[in-house]
Predict the structure.
Amino acid sequence: MDMLELLRKLPEEIEEAIEFDVPYFDEKPPRIFLGGMGGSAISGDVAKLVMSDLDIPFEIIRDYRLPAYAGKKDILIASSYSGNTEESLSLYEDGLSRNMKILVITSGGKLLQLAQKNNNFYVKIPSGFPPRTALGYLFTPIVMTCVKSGFVGHHHIENLKKLPDFMRNLHKEFESVDSLPLEIAKKLYFRFPIIYTSRRMYPVGLRWKAQINENAKAFAHIMDFPEMNHNEIAGIKNPKERVEALWAIFMEDVDDYERIKLRFRHTMDLIKDSVMGITHILSRGNSIAERVFYLIYLGDYVSYYLAKLYNEDPVAIPRIDELKRRLSK
């Protein structure tokens, strides 16, 4: 399985997933919870970010239990690509015990069996891929369900339909010998990436971190603004020899609050003499969906090139597999 081919197929995933037969909810809930881990949880983060007109509290749960205030009028989206993620299964059982309205998104496994047994809504997505390369399959049904249920506007469908061609047009650019993702990967090689975003764009930074971790087997750190300016900015000093190995990445979106943009500029100036270097990235695209996926796709390619520089297999995740094996005993 070739990671580059898996990255290239993300636009096709979104096109396919737009055609999925997704369910709808006939009542607006007080809250929506999405329970999942890794790529499944990121899909909820990204959906929430893209659906900026959603006026229902939408909370991503990366744990075994729902919060005490989750109740039967709320919706639980239980997401697990494999269908066997133990945290997602635990959250599903918790939601079921509270008589919540449940939607399952999975490719199979125990979660699909439980959804079918208990007559829950479910969307069965294609199987056989590493979960982190199935973002299109995991993300799109969330948005489509919210549109179909009347929770957000129909313009999101039009934005999703334009997204695959927008992303395909990035292939040549991102795969050229002097591409931006390759340039960034070279800067991160043998350095410690620290990724900064606004609070609203935090899911994009989290995707970058996770992809660098899993694909390149490399450490990465993320922090959001303005919180960074109230603590971390003071810590980018010691130990000096470690801080000098940091490479800071600032990701900015046009819709970020103006004070956040101002904080970015001043922070870059204040830390530039302490860190190895700084890369400032601006989002691109005509819609929030395009801008978000431009940054996500850029990060996916960065992690791929960084894996190649470290001579790592970007598909294999031996430590995660071994941990799951030990936990299954």
Remarks:
- The chain has two domains: 3-164, 170-309.
- Residues 235 and 325 are 38 Å apart (CA to CA).
